[in-house]
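Retro notes, structure queue

What went well: the backlog is down to a handful. What didn't: a couple of records were mislabeled last round, so from now on we paste the full input next to the output in the thread. Example, using Precorrin-6A synthase (Deacetylating) from Dactylosporangium siamense:
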Amino acid sequence: MRKVLIIGIGAGDPEHVTVQAVNAMNAVDVFLVLDKGDTTADLTEARRAICERFATQRPYRTVVIADPPRDRTAADYEGAVRDWRDERARMIEEALLAEAEDAVVGILAWGDPALYDGTIRILDTIAARGNVAVDYAVIPGITSVQVLTARHRIMLNRVAGPVHITTGRRLAAGWPDGCDDVVVMLDADLACRAYRDEDVDIYWGAYLGTPDELLVAGRLGKVVDEIDAVRREARARKGWIMDTYLLRRV
Ligand SMILES: C[S@@+](CC[C@H](N)C(=O)[O-])C[C@H]1O[C@@H](n2cnc3c(N)ncnc32)[C@H](O)[C@@H]1O
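Corresponding output:
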């Protein structure tokens, strides 16, 4: 039975890595790394640096798997993501089959593996197919949402209130019902612009936890153009951007 450890490594700062994650890394024989190509070479490098810094107690190997391309033009967004995940599952299954049956395999997940990360579902898919006997454990990590609130020194929720976590794509379709505090992730187009005339505060952060970290906060209508400009400049300079924000109706 191959053992897979899905290890949350935090959202950018190596000091986010927990003691539990360090112990898990030191039990790993081989790390599987999904290489997403040039635009996220920085993230692949960050993962490599984390292994080098923390997985010090025994030798390990690294197997790089080229991430399959995703059809970003497909009308059926969820279908395209499913196809992409199936292809990833197939490649990871192949990589697992190439390892010894008692191998411990590590997969580093950005932030926490439970939040907008496909690794757990991929392992579920592989286990369900039954081509390779696999058992897996999940080691939690610090999410970008936690880093965002810590950097802005704010609470995620208001007193006993709910919080809604969603994507830019869904926010573009409308403000979620029944919740005044909305965290937005995976937003390529700053969908919050649609609410610039409403009484909404924004707490925005990009490259959180890294030396390139950017933070802006204020009344949405007043700061959204600044965020847009800062974001465009940073994306042009680095070739990629990862940002997260909290919208709070006031
Ligand atoms: C595929 S999801 C992964 C989320 C991750 N599992 C987590 O726990 O934060 C990628 C999205 O997470 C957010 N994100 C991840 N790391 C970030 C960082 N260092 N700074 C800002 N946002 C980040 C962005 O919204 C990005 O589009």
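Agreed that this is the format going forward. Reviewer comment attached to the example: The chain has seven helices and ten strands.
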